[in-house]
Amino acid sequence: MGELSSMSSLTEKDRPIVELLLNTGTCPRCILRFCCVASQTLYRCPYKDLMKEVKEFLKNNQEKEDTVCCDVVDPPCKRIRLEHAEEGPDDLNHNGAVQQIPLVNDETTAMENSAVKVCNVCLGILQELCEVDFVKKVCQKVNSADYQFTSFVFSVSLPPQLSVRERAAWLLVKQEMRKLGLSLAKDDIVQLKEAYKWIIHPQLSEELGVPADGKSLFEVSVVFAHPETDEECHFLATACPDCFKPAKNKQSVFTRMAVLKALEKIKEEDFLKHFPCPPSSPKNLCVALEVQCNNGAVFVAGRYNKYSRNLPQTPWIIDGERKLESSVEELISEHLMAEFKADSFNFSSSGREDVDVRTLGNGRPFAIELVNPRRIHFTAEEMKGLQQTINNSSDKIQVRDLQLVTREAIGRMKEGEEEKTKTYSALIWTDKAIQKEDISFLDDIKELKLDQKTPLRVLHRRPLAVRCRIIHTMKSEYIDEHHFRLHLKTQAGTYIKEFVHGDFGRTKPNIGSLLNRTADILELDVESVDVDWPPTLDN
Amino acid sequence: MAAAARGGAERYFTRWYKADVKGRPCEDFCVLQHSNRICVITLAEAHPLLQSGKTIKSINYQISANCSRLQNKVSGKSKRGAQFLTELAPLCRISSSDGEEYTIYSCIRGRLIEVNENILSNPAILQEKPSTEGYIAVVLPKFEESKSITQGLLTQKEYEEVLVKRLNSSS
C-alpha cells in the first residue's frame, strides 16, 4: 500500500505537479497519470488509499527515506512526527491546532471524511466509476442479459469533453514544468482509457468468472455521458469549424473524433482563451447511459430442398400485405432464431429458385448469420437435433448437413452461385404437335451459347444487359404431341424459363426457335446445385 | 402451372388497348402490362399492318432529325438516360409496300427501355407474332404513375366492345 513513496513511482520532481493538481481538484489516479506512473497495480489500489498516499507523499520531504511500510497505515507516532516537521504558519487553523493535512485547504479536508469531490479531469471515471459498486452494477446487467460466453472484451465510450479537460490539465502541467525548467513528454502521460481498463478489467473478470480477451466475440460496452459539461466542447466549433460536419439524425456534431481533430488543430493560446485552465470542478459524476452486451454473429450452414411450388425464398410482402404464406428462409431460420436466441438473421444461399420451382437432389447450399446470439455453443448432436426439428416442422422444405461454420466459409457458397453448374428438369409444352424425332436433336447439342437480355419479369429492378450463358448438355424425354421433359445442365446464372419460352425473343436461341414452335414451360425443378459446400455430414 | 393458351412469355401480362389512335381508323395498339409495371407496346390484331395482304417495306426508328429510338441508352437499375415518352410519342414509323405509312405510338407515359431490333432484321415476325417476338418497345412507367397509366386505356372487354361496334357500323 505504501508503494507510492517507497517505489520510485512518484519522485521529488513530481511534487510540484502533484501539489498543483491535487489543489485544483484532480483525483489521485489522474495525478498518477500526469506523472507518467505506469504501474498497473498502483491504479488498482482503492481510491481512499490512493488519496491518502498522495497526501502522504506531499507531506514527506526528501529526508524521509525510512518511509511508510507497505501494509500498515501510518502509525500515529510517525504522523505526528511528520506534522511537526511540516508545521508552519499556514498549518494552523483558527483554533491554533495543527491540521492533519496542512497542504490542502479546509474544504477538501472536510471532504476526506464525507463525499469525494468529482475529479475535474476524469469526471469520476477513475474514481467511483471503476470501483466495486459500479463493477457490480455492470455485471448484474451482464448476467441478467443471459448470454453464453467464455471471455469478454470491454469497451467504453467516454464523453468528448474529457479530451478537452485532459488538454487543459496537460497545458496546466506543462506550464508548471516550464517554470521548473523541466519537460514533460505528452506521450508518457498515461491515457485515461488505458488506466480505466487496467482497473476495471480484473474486477469484471473476477465478477463474471471469465477472462478479458481483446479478440473475444462477446462485447460488454458502456457509454458514459456528462450532461453537465456537454456544452464545453462548443467553443471548438467556432475555433475550428471545418472539423465539425453537419449532424445527421439529430446526433450531436461534437463526436469524439471531431473533438480530437479540433484539439489537434487549435493553437494553445486560442484554447486557453476559451477554456478554463485548470478545468472547473463539476458537481456530478459521469453517468453510465447504457450497459450493452453483444455477442459476435454465429453462422449456420446447410443445404435445403424445396418441395412446394408455392413458396417464395424470402417473405413476399407488397404494400404491407403478405402475398404468400411463409418463405424458405423463415421456415429454416425461425427454429434457429429460437435456439440461438438471436436478435435477427441474414439468410443467403448459393443462388435461388422461383416460387413455383422445386429444389430436388442434394439441395441448395445456404448460410444463416445469426446476429447477437445469446447461445453460441452447440454440439454436433444438438445440431442434428435442430435439423430434425426443422424437418419435422414442415413438409415444404427439408434441410441437411446443418452445421456451424465460420464467416469465411460463406465466401465458398457465394462463389458457387457464380461459378458452379446447375442441372434442371423442365416440363415443356408446344403449340404445334411434336414427334419424338422432332426433339431428339436436342440431346446432341453441346455447349449451346445463349444471349439472354434481362428478362422482362425482373427488368423493373435489374439493369438492362445481355448475358451470355451456356447450356452444357440437354436430354429430352418425349411425353406426347404437345409435351416433353427436358433435362439440362447449365452455367450458373442461366434463366431457364426464358430459354424455354423465349421472353418475347429476347433470349436467343430458345426452345421455341430451336423447334420452330411456340413453347411454354409448365414445371421446373432444380435437380442439382453442383457446389461441394458445406461439407456433407452423415445425416 | 396450367397449360398456356398462348405462349408462356405473356402469362403474367394484362392486356390494355388504345383504339383509333390519333383518329386514324383501326390503328389500335395493345399494351401488355406485367405485374411488375414493365409494359410492352405491341400492335393490336385489328391494326392495318396485321391484315392480310400487307407487306412491310421498312421500319424506321428515326422519328425525327434529332431523335432515333435506336440511340436510347439506359443504365443502372433505375434506367437512367432513357428517352422519356408521353402517350403520343412516336416509337417508330413503318411503311408498307402499298405506299402507306403508319406511326406507332407509345400509348403510355414512361421511360423507353428498349425497342425491338429483331423486327428490323426480320420484319415478318412483326406480322407473324405481333404479341410476342414482334413487339415494338418496352416501356417502364414511373413508379407513382404505374397504376394511373391504365386510365387512358381500354380493358380487354372494353376493346372487344369497340371491335363489335366497328363491325356493326361497317355492316
TrEMBL record, chain A:
Keyword Metal-binding: yes
EC number: 5.4.99.25
Residue ranges annotated for the Pus10 N-terminal eukaryotes domain, each copy included: 119-293
Primary location group: cytoplasm
Reaction equation(s) it catalyzes: uridine(54) in tRNA = pseudouridine(54) in tRNA; uridine(55) in tRNA = pseudouridine(55) in tRNA
Molecular function per GO: metal ion binding; RNA binding; tRNA pseudouridine(55) synthase activity
Any Pfam family the entry gives: Pus10_N_euk
TM annotation in the entry: none
One cellular component term from this protein's GO annotations in UniProt: mitochondrion
Record localization: Cytoplasm; Mitochondrion; Nucleus
Gene3D superfamilies (alphabetical): 1.10.10.2050, 3.30.70.2510, 3.30.70.3190
Keyword Cytoplasm: yes
PANTHER family: TRNA PSEUDOURIDINE SYNTHASE PUS10
Recorded family membership: Belongs to the pseudouridine synthase Pus10 family.
Protein name as it appears in the record: tRNA pseudouridine synthase Pus10
Origin organism lineage: Eukaryota, Metazoa, Chordata, Craniata, Vertebrata
Automatic annotation (TrEMBL), chain B:
Source species: Mycteria americana (Wood stork)
Protein family per UniProt: Belongs to the ABITRAM family.
Tagged with keyword rRNA-binding: no
Gene Ontology cellular component list: dendrite; filopodium tip; growth cone; lamellipodium; nuclear speck
Entry-linked Gene3D superfamilies: 2.40.50.100
Protein name: Protein Abitram
Cited PANTHER family: PROTEIN ABITRAM
InterPro entries (UniProt xref): Abitram, GCV_H/Fam206, Single_hybrid_motif
Top-level taxon of origin: Eukaryota
GO MF annotation terms: actin filament binding; actin monomer binding
Keywords from the named record: Cell projection, Nucleus
GO BP terms, alphabetized: dendrite morphogenesis; regulation of actin filament polymerization; regulation of filopodium assembly
Locations listed in the record: Cell projection, Dendrite; Cell projection, Growth cone; Cell projection, Lamellipodium; Nucleus speckle
Primary location class: other
